[in-house]
Automatic annotation (TrEMBL):
<dbReference type="GO" id="GO:0008168">
    <property type="term" value="F:methyltransferase activity"/>
</dbReference>
<comment type="similarity">
    <text>Belongs to the class I-like SAM-binding methyltransferase superfamily. C5-methyltransferase family.</text>
</comment>
<keyword id="KW-0680">Restriction system</keyword>
<feature type="region of interest" description="Disordered">
    <location>
        <begin position="170"/>
        <end position="211"/>
    </location>
</feature>
<dbReference type="InterPro" id="IPR031303">
    <property type="entry name" value="C5_meth_CS"/>
</dbReference>
<keyword id="KW-0808">Transferase</keyword>
<feature type="active site">
    <location>
        <position position="75"/>
    </location>
</feature>
<dbReference type="InterPro" id="IPR029063">
    <property type="entry name" value="SAM-dependent_MTases_sf"/>
</dbReference>
<dbReference type="InterPro" id="IPR001525">
    <property type="entry name" value="C5_MeTfrase"/>
</dbReference>
<feature type="compositionally biased region" description="Basic and acidic residues">
    <location>
        <begin position="191"/>
        <end position="204"/>
    </location>
</feature>
<dbReference type="Pfam" id="PF00145">
    <property type="entry name" value="DNA_methylase"/>
</dbReference>
<keyword id="KW-0949">S-adenosyl-L-methionine</keyword>
<dbReference type="InterPro" id="IPR050390">
    <property type="entry name" value="C5-Methyltransferase"/>
</dbReference>
<protein>
    <recommendedName>
        <fullName>DNA (cytosine-5-)-methyltransferase</fullName>
        <ecNumber>2.1.1.37</ecNumber>
    </recommendedName>
</protein>
<dbReference type="GO" id="GO:0032259">
    <property type="term" value="P:methylation"/>
</dbReference>
<keyword id="KW-0489">Methyltransferase</keyword>
Length: 248
């Protein structure tokens, strides 16, 4: 399955999806430092610098099919630590991501954000996906559910076209109801803490460290690869099951 990654950052989402068997075929990232990191790890993958012009960029070049559009759109408009302006914040960039989905019509959409999206924009995201003909599920996953020594709770939205088959989250989620009829709760985890190295004791001040601030900011914005891998395996396993049902 081919992935077009939006708001790619330093590629945490891509790392996890690749571990689940997917192939990254395009990346969109505005930050020059992050693009430098992406170029070092995915030198063969084409990159673009602005999600707002991503559709025209992708259409203007020879391109493979895109099966998955994935991205963690900026969290500042909905974060509890911010001004909480949601759609009124100029950094609200779900709309350009929705434009990419509308134009490319992928088989799957993966969106990630902070928990504040639940009350400051999730209803809009789900309504847009519904308008585009996608069935969506939303729920939380924490890094510690994958065995990490820290929580890093994030809200993920997983969507596929209506009628394509059952969303793989439906059979696994048993938690309380989330907004707009979506469910939340535990996802299970593919491994335990022994998969993780001891968390380093990294100081929060970067004085005297070349590009230390850029590195810490990029890491702070990144998706934990093990979480992305779990999402990717839900998709690939679900896609395989759907294919088997159609073949039968």
């Amino acid at each position: 399955m081919n992935v077009l990654s939006l708001f790619a950052g330093i590629g945490g989402l891509e790392l996890g999806l690749e571990r689940a068997g997917m192939t990254v075929v395009g990346q969109v990232e505005i930050d020059p430092f992050c693009r430098h990191v992406l170029a070092a790890h995915w030198p063969e993958v084409p990159r673009h610098d602005d999600v707002r012009t991503a559709v025209a960029w992708w259409r203007s070049r020879p391109r493979p099919a895109v099966h998955v559009v994935a991205g963690g759109f900026p969290c500042q408009p909905v974060s509890d630590a911010g001004r909480k302006l949601a759609q009124q914040d100029p950094r609200w960039l779900w709309n350009p991501m929705a434009d990419v989905v509308a134009d490319l019509r992928p088989e799957w959409v993966v969106a990630e954000n902070v928990p504040g999206l639940r009350t400051r924009g999730l209803a809009t995201v789900l309504a847009d996906l519904d308008r585009l003909g996608y069935a969506a599920r939303a729920g939380y996953i924490s890094a510690c559910e994958m065995g990490a020594p820290h929580p890093r709770k994030r809200l993920f939205i997983l969507a596929h076209p209506e009628g394509q088959g059952r969303c793989p989250w439906r059979a696994q989620r048993t938690g309380p109801a989330a907004p707009d009829g979506q469910s939340e709760g535990g996802h299970g985890r593919p491994g335990g803490r022994d998969r993780w190295a001891t968390e380093p004791d990294v100081g929060r001040v970067a004085h005297g460290i070349p590009r230390g601030v850029d590195r810490r900011r990029a890491l702070g914005n990144a998706v934990v690869p093990d979480v992305a891998e779990h999402i990717g395996r839900l998709i690939t396993n679900g896609a395989v099951s759907a294919t088997a049902r159609r073949a039968a």
